[in-house]
Amino acid sequence: MWRRLQVRSPTRVVLEKGVDQIMTRLSEGMSYPQYMNVSPTPPTLPGALARVPSLPLISSGASNSGSDRASESLIRHSKTQLYTVSYNYCTSSRMNSGGVNETIGIGTAGGRSGANLMGSDLYKHLNRYFVSHLKQVSAAAEPLTDEPLLVYYTREWDRYTTGASYVNRLFTYLNRHWVKREKDEGRKNVYQVYILALVQWRDHFYAHVQDNHKLSNAVSKLIEKQRNGETIQTDLVKKVVDSLGTWFALGVVKGRPRRLALGMDEGDTNKQNLEVYQDAFERPFLAATDLYYTSESEQYIGANSVTEYMKKAEMRLAEEENRVDLYLHASTRKGLVSKCEEVLVKNHAGKMQEEFQREGDLKRMYLLLSRIPNGLDPLRERFEQHVKKAGLASVEKVVGESAEGVEPKAYVEALLSVHSNNAELVQKAFKGDQGFVGSLDRACREFVNRNKACSNANKSPELLAKHADGLLKKSNKASEDDDLEKSLTETMTIFKYIEDKDVFQKFYTKMLSNRLIRATSASDDAESSMITRLKDACGFEYTSKLTRMFQDMALNKDLNAQFKDKMSQTHDASELGVDFEVSILGTSSWPLGAASTGVKLPTELQQVYDRFTGYYMSKHSGRKLTWLWQHCRNELRTLYTGQKYFFVTSMFQTVVLLQFNTSGDSLSYEDLKLGTGMEDEALKPVLQLLVKQRVVDLKDDMYELNLGFKSKKIRVNLNAPIKAEQKTESADVMKHIDDDRKMLIQATIVRVMKSRKEMKHQQLINETLAQLQTRFKPKLGDVKKAIDVLIDKEYLERVDGQRDLYKYLA
């Protein structure tokens, strides 16, 4: 294949035929080790060839027949012998003047040493050989198209690059010395032998088969077949792609081949340049991908449900990512995935966002829409609306026609069911995405505070406090430790969304006080656990009164024990006539007011009352005791019925019933009023309840003790709360809340102004609203009124000439 001269030297012939034998034998499928082992024992080199350095490149006196026989012998020799011939040729110092001085991007031979001229001559002949060989390969590819072209291209690529790699090894000395010297001197278009072979492949074969995009179109058609479900030879695509942009073997570095290919940077052959790959394959491939999936997606979504389309899109995206791993260059991943996301997801995002069905669909939708910029924003908004709508519907179902009398347990469970279902959805379908967590929180805050049960914003915290009260009472059937802790955790989940936490605080404090003084708490541990949770959520100040209430109850145990011990030392215990316990409650901590009516204690209670009062005042002379008769609880045993019963009564009921011990079995209303000392508004409800319970009968305006009273229960609770009293109590709590809020707003404004000294009106409004958000959601008008009140109280003043600027007055 070498260009023949009129006179040939044995050395030239050896190298010519050595290169040609490597390229042609490998083209016939023979591996390099097989080629090197054709002859088991290499013969001794002719004496003339052993002294190659003394021979001219072209000797006019050499015999053609002799050189041919020598070359036939040498082509079967080992790599070492061929390398030796190449080395001797490059280091020859003489060159026959009849040689041809051609240039292929290097300077002329003038002024150079003989060794340099020999290297230049060898390099030029190698270049001509590669060009000549590739023209034959290219001619055979002329009639081929599509898959046959790819088969031919990949086969020739494998053979050519393998042969070029072996040839490169033979000319190691040329690469290390002559090529390096030329490059160091700034010569252009001079490469190592392997790179030279690739450059010629690119320019004389690849450029031919890629004319009119014939090669890249063949690759695209094969990929389209695979997309259509047909089985293809993926290695054909991979080898073509590799030839354009992936590195191929060039020697061995630390046991691993270096890589080089058509996409090389000719200025720095160790640097990859993907221009060939991108121009010839990637851009046309992405354009074809766009067309293919645009057509397929529009047809599929028009003929199938959105759910089925999302499954299809998810499958296609996975296929394309896998395609990169199988046979595309890694740099294509970003562009290919982005193109598929645009065509398969972004172009159909609107239709997908309209669907909001099963968890699996939402997970698939999330994964698809998360691929495109801002693709999840509409989904988050729809999710928020979905949760809000579900919450309102759930509450409406529980409330029914009227919001009055809604059961706290059912109400809270309705809120929890919506939250827990959607919180689980966020974790499973949306992978805990913080954007969806925020959407869930906003939706829950909305339907928890503004729903059909909430005639006003205070209703939801009141119902939640009542639900917590039910959980913490002894009557709670699910009072096992694990179940109770779980229920308290769920209660705090809803508490997080309550805007008016001060309302919850008031009702919870009121109900806790009732549980403590009536001894109806399920356990002290459960009560402490709930207080700890509230403190963690809202801070120490929020629960300070609750903590002091518990401390008071602990002190009361010691106080009662000391009192009984004192009485046992100074009096006969039987003289008291009753089993007596008292609770001393701090006025500033307990939400309990004085009784609305006075009462005359019966003789049975007066004695123990006097003794305890005397005992306590002797220990705390500076204190004042105010007896809260409305919160006292008693137990009475019947002596007038055949079956003995125990009545659980309030103090007012006790005083009324004990009248029948001293004044007969039949008493008028006036007799009872005079005997008990009670006001009408307190006495009438008590008598009505006793009549309703059939403990007392009303006959001709006379109240008679029902001597035939019967009940299925031995212990009868007559101390049931009266609905009218409960309603009044709720109204009183709300009035106290309004009063507290006014003071809290004023205190917040003073605290802000004290630290800032001067503030503009809007800044003061904003800062006050921000600081109060954790307790309740104040109205703008209430803050403005509080500012005016503080100006009147001379805490603030308006700055002269600047009506919107306030100044703090120390």
UniProtKB/TrEMBL annotation:
GO MF terms held by the record: ubiquitin protein ligase binding
Coiled-coil spans in chain: 303-330
Domain Cullin family profile: 459-691
Record keywords: Coiled coil, Isopeptide bond, Ubl conjugation, Ubl conjugation pathway
GO annotations of cellular component type: SCF ubiquitin ligase complex
Entry keyword Ubl conjugation: yes
Gene Ontology biological process terms from the UniProt entry: SCF-dependent proteasomal ubiquitin-dependent protein catabolic process
Pathway: Protein modification; protein ubiquitination
InterPro entries associated with the record: Cullin, Cullin-like_AB, Cullin_CS, Cullin_homology, Cullin_homology_sf, Cullin_N, Cullin_neddylation_domain, Cullin_repeat-like_dom_sf
Record Pfam families: Cullin, Cullin_AB, Cullin_Nedd8
Family to which this protein belongs: Belongs to the cullin family.
Record protein name field: Cullin-1
Annotated source species: Microbotryum silenes-dioicae
